[in-house]
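Anyone? Bumping this.
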Amino acid sequence: MLMNKKIKINVQNLWFYYNDHPVLEDISLEIPQNTITAVTGPSGQGKSTFLMTLNRLWENIEGPRIKGRIEIRFTSNFQNIYDKRYNVSDLRRQVGMVFQVPNPLPMSIYNNIAFPLKLKGEKNKKLVTFRVEDALKRSFLWDEVKDRLNKDARALSGGQQQRLCIARALVLNPQVLLLDEPTSSLDDTSGRVIEDLLLELKKECTMILVSHYLDQVKRIADSGMVLSNRQMKQQW
Amino acid sequence: MKPDFSNRLFNYFSWGCSILLIGAVLTIISFLIANGYNVLSLHLIFDDTRPLDAIFLKTQVFDGLFPAIAGTVFLILLSILFAVPIGLATGIFLAEYCPPKIKRHFSLLFDILAGIPSIVVGLFGFCVTLFLHHYFYSRLFPCLLISAFSLAFLILPYIIRTTQISLETLPLSVRLTAPGLGATKLQNIFYVLLPSSLSGILSGIILSIGRCAEDTAVIMLTGAVASAGIPRSVFSSFEALPFYIYYISSQYSDNSELMKGYGACLILLFICITLFVLAHWIKKRLYQKILYQP
């Protein structure tokens, strides 16, 4: 079934070094559009690092170096994301990321969700309000927070904070969503809510999910990869 | 020695040190209050002048502390005004932009600057004044502006270092949040990193306020005099509380004059506390403005 889908992300011969010590070795893979691809494997093997190569976030850390080619098809053509002329802020607006530990900014709930729009320079307040509400609804959080949008986002529960972070990533309508163990700091019930949410988001996004939980991966992922000894292998 | 015993010993020792310190501070403050409380009155500040007349500069205060209070407040505010923007910018540069090799050298230089005795900074300010007086502007003498500049020099290392360290110690998760959402480096610094390290930066500024309020060596050489009245402009000499305290304690002629010195100490403490509270209030307002306004 997967074969019929269009390829969204194409990774070719990716090498990643941290202070000249290789973390990823010669990784090549293709990720189909509107699927959830799970990446599992022992901890400390560079799963998070792999995610960060897809939105170039590793460039904000001192020490690493990269070799290889990564292309993502945002329009009809593939775009080399490491092209010097390609704007990294544009890339990160198309490739959203959710971290292991929820990281709401010390702002109100509304401002957290509106923050990416502010960074983009969106001045139209009506549009911002609309997009914030839309993102909160798509991340199953609207009903819980609609009466307290101006309250500090850090006062929300862990599960709510993580859905807030997903909403914040969704507000720019990204085409790719990188999820770094998004449920590992949450209890089972909150984790399940997020799993349902991800299945729903498959309609609009291509997702790569780093996870420790094999049962979770089996429940929601379309394909699974294992990263160990610096190599990535297709599991199913 | 059993680990449990050494643990407890260290615990007691830490407690003892803290209590000793707090005790010392309380002793000093109560000593000041005991001695200065009786003289603390409007008369001490305004002498025989009506307070409103003095505040609105209708009548000059000759024998009260009002000119020294005004001089100290102006001096602190002016120094902070000079030092904060430069210190913040330098701290941001060191933490976010400076290549590691240059950073090592710069940090060493700022540490040396922090270690320069204030009398040397005062002397430097005095020499600069002489130089400017000789070659550029013969009407320039030691004055409020020169004092504030010299003091700014003295407190810059504190502000630079606290800004740099508060930025550098932010966890990676905070650092990566905004870039992950498409923020440029500058946006990340102004929208996330600086607001997140506001508390640390503020502690540097508070330390600086205290330093400006107490320093006598610098201002003695650069513009403070025993009697000058309210400074008419930044180019006039001025009175300051620490200088008054120093002067009165070394040259008092009777006990009542010495008591006025204690009164001045209390007022200086009060000014510092007021400025700390003001700084906290500004921080709170800034938080509200930056983070909560929709």
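Late reply, but here is one note on the structure posted above: The mean pLDDT of chain B is 90.
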